[in-house]
Amino acid sequence: IKLIDTVRAEEDLGIPLVQGNRGGSNGGQTVLTPEGKEFLKRYRKFEQEVRAGADASFQKWFGTEEDLEGG
């Protein structure tokens, strides 16, 4: 994910998704906030639901390869 995408997502959602710490001897790090973790958890469930719906719709309209061949 690009930094600009994260900033825009945070603005659009109204919640902080990541928290970054600058440099030092070990370098910086960026971690998900608790809100970011919850959002990611929900998004993954949403994505699974969308995929299942898309699979069902594909089967409805196109069926199996045999269905497409007229069998």
Written overview of the protein:
It is a single chain. This protein has 71 residues and is mainly alpha-helical. The chain is 62% helix and 11% strand. The protein has three helices and two strands. It has helices at 3-13, 34-62, 65-68, and strands spanning 18-21, 29-32. A two-stranded antiparallel sheet has the order 1-2. A hairpin with a 7-residue loop joins strand 1 and strand 2 (29-32). The longest helix has 29 residues, at 34-62. The N and C termini lie far apart (45 Å). The relative contact order is 0.09.
Features:
71 residues; 2 strands; elongated; two-stranded antiparallel ribbon; single chain; mainly alpha; 3 helices
Q: Can you lay out the helices and strands and say which pair or pack?
A:
Blueprint: H1 3-13, E1 18-21, E2 29-32, H2 34-62, H3 65-68
Antiparallel strand pairs: 1-2
The number of helical elements comes to 3
Low-confidence stretches: none
Distance between the termini: 45 Å
Give the averaged pLDDT, no decimals: 87
**Share of helix, binned:** 55-70%
Question: What is the gist of this entry?
Answer:
The protein has helices spanning about 5-15, 35-60, 65-70; strands at about 20, 30.
